[in-house]
């Protein structure tokens, strides 16, 4: 089995401020995981705001360099400092899908023009009918067609349709990996599931792996094969999504699950999270030395020295 993506002991520290007031933020600490080529999957990264999800995604896309560790795609180190041709080849294989489709598209540019420029750039196509064919194929994968979007501007589509177009754009170079950072959070609630189902179909029908970044446990449970839970830059639990989400072991994972109560619980006035759970999870986040231990069910859980 060959490795598609290998994230190996990756950390990222941001430095801010002047010489005398320098501050360091450890956005990601010692993250490691691997995606295999022959096993397309939805690999979910979940965690509260500021837990390092986007920084990790940006490093995988080569938009940020790790402070420590290494990221390899098909055995080659990912870096935005790679020669242009190498970088373009990498970008055609690992495509991003962003949170807000209205920001991803230029409001003054017709959608088909935008898709066509992606086809020209990544597939080196110049023949108009070949470009139309590639666009139509990519749009069909997301349940649209070129006839439907031809000549239209971003504001003429719904948020859900536009996010589909953004995904179609990402699919044009036929990438084996999509990095989708909160792809449904700006989409109208009624259309959210259609985008989530689309990611699932891309995995099942076209063999595309997706790194799915979200705050949302419900959609994570529904589509993920594996999941990592991040807290303050560190992976605290990782494993099969159902194993982890049905019976989370790390106190922070349990806190995360308990924070998303059903409407039944809310109706019963049970929305408050156990303060003791909050205290324990907060204390552990600050604990300095810890490592991920392997459990018999295959999950990895962060354990703390002395705990
Ligand atoms: N360019 C940067 N310069 C300085 N600090 C940064 C930078 N980017 C991220 N950070 C900090 O790194 C930490 C992790 O941020 P990140 O955006 O990766 O978290 P996140 O889990 O994606 O959050 P959200 O869910 O809100 O998008 C935060 O404390 C953030 O303020």
TrEMBL record:
Assigned keywords, A-Z: ATP-binding, Nucleotide-binding
InterPro entries reported in the protein's UniProt record: AAA+_ATPase (IPR003593), ABC_transporter-like_ATP-bd (IPR003439), P-loop_NTPase (IPR027417)
GO molecular function, one term: ATP binding
Protein name according to UniProt: ABC transporter ATP-binding protein
Domain ABC transporter: 5-257
The keyword Transport belongs to this UniProt entry's keyword annotation: no
Family matches, as PROSITE patterns: ABC_TRANSPORTER_2 (PS50893)
Acetylation as UniProt keyword: no
């Amino acid at each position: 089995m060959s490795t598609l993506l290998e994230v190996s002991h990756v950390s990222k520290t941001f430095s801010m401020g002047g010489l005398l007031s320098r501050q360091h933020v450890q956005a990601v600490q010692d993250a490691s995981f691997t995606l295999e080529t022959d096993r397309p999957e939805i690999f979910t990264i979940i965690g509260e705001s500021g837990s390092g999800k986007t920084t990790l995604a940006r490093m995988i896309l080569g938009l940020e360099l790790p402070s420590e560790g290494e990221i390899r795609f098909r055995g080659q180190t990912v870096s935005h400092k790679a020669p242009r041709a190498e970088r373009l080849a990498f970008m055609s294989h690992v495509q991003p899908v962003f949170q807000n489709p209205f920001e991803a598209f230029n409001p003054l540019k017709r959608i088909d023009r935008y898709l066509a420029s992606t086809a020209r750039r990544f597939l080196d196509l110049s023949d108009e009918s070949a470009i139309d064919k590639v666009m139509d194929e990519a749009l069909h994968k997301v349940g649209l067609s070129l006839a439907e979007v031809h000549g239209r501007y971003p504001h003429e589509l719904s948020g859900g349709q536009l996010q589909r177009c953004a995904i179609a754009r990402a699919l044009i170079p036929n990438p084996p990996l999509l990095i989708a950072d909160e792809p449904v959070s700006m989409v109208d609630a009624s259309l959210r599931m259609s985008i989530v189902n689309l990611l699932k179909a891309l995995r099942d029908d076209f063999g595309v792996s997706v790194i799915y970044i979200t705050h949302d446990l419900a959609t994570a449970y529904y589509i993920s094969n594996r999941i990592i839970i991040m807290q303050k830059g560190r992976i605290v639990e990782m494993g099969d999504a159902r194993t982890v989400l049905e019976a989370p072991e790390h106190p922070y994972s349990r806190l995360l699950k308990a924070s998303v109560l059903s409407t039944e619980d809310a109706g019963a006035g049970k929305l408050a999270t156990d303060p003791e759970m909050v205290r324990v999870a907060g204390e552990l986040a600050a604990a300095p030395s810890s490592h991920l231990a392997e459990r018999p069910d295959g999950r990895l859980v962060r354990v703390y020295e002395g705990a």
